[in-house]
Amino acid sequence: MSQASQTTRPVRSSPFPGGFPGHFIGGFALSMLVVLTILGAALWGFWTPIWEALGQAQAHAPDFSRLAALSPAVQIHLYTALAALVLGGLLMAARKGRRFHRAAGWTWVGLVAMTAGASLFITELNHGSWSLIHLFTGWTLIILPLGVFWARRRQVARHRRAMMGLFYGAFAINLVFAFIPGRTMWSLFFG
To answer: Which residues pair with 126 in a beta bridge?
Structure first.
């Protein structure tokens, strides 16, 4: 038997279940840089009014009359995004590979697909056309099925990176973006 066949890989200790590849952090940082660049470009020319509105903000209970007046596409987008955010947080905290992970994961995929699909019909921000924000929709509609495909092929590392990237990139970052003055979430709680 050769020496090469007897060697074993060193065990990596990681505080994350299943390990946490170091190259994920670099890729995630690059993704966040791209996200912030897109957001900065989408908001070009609006920074001064945004800072002024933030200075005058007064938090209040949600204005349900404004919520009821939203278009069906915005309501679907809002409700499915909030549900996916909560369920995604549970999935990130739960043990992976168990029955709950699989069932909740399929539910999360459905919620994310509905959120992205509804966003295709939200065009008020850009006078009836898609805006730069819709680049996130396109990205989601590409990565989401790939994440499912990789899970079905048992390519766990790829699946993990895709789904974590969608969760943190598409939901956590966009949640902050949703509360920019003038947007729907801002008007519900601060407007």
So the answer is: 129
